[in-house]
Amino acid sequence: ASLFTASAQMQGNLYVGGRLGYSTNTITAKYSYEGITLSGQLPGTSSFSIIPEVGYFVIDNLRVSFSAGYELSVQQTSQQQGKWLTDRTHLFEFGPSVSYYLNLLDDKLFYELGIYGAFGAFKQDLDLSTTKKYGVSAFALRINLIAFEYSINQNISAFATLGALEFDTLAAQSDNPNDPKINASNLNFNILSSATAGVRYYF
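User: That's the sequence. What structure does it adopt?
Assistant: Structure tokens below.
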């Protein structure tokens, strides 16, 4: 495979691509005291995302793109009668981004600024028979601080982002109109925890 060259970031280039992600973790803890060993499973998390994207280079090394997709996150909370209660978040994310490809490392390094909106639902198990539902809307401003793209062949490239600075706000309202509205905002700097990867096809 050849390195990603400047010809792949020339004005007029168009691509489609996206990200597909899945992660899960479970923790089993063991406790020993006076020769007696007990073990149990701690709450775990899992997530799934699929984010298609289309992009266009307006000038050499400068592209604009738009992405829209779905994300699911499941967080185990507690157990009742041997079954896990969970918090589940369903989000539909969409928004534009702008990326400038620096002429470093054979044009593989670039910075990306993205503005994203999202809406969806949050479901919280209160017990085995009761689930509380929330409507969710969000806004995020994200700067990918470290991003690489690698050309597999003339048309296909792989990309990865390793670190991001992100500001986001979130509003949630339960299905009970008498419940107060929840508002939250966060400023986060993440390295490996915000890592993403995907592929792009250039026309």
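DSSP finds no helices and nine strands in the chain.
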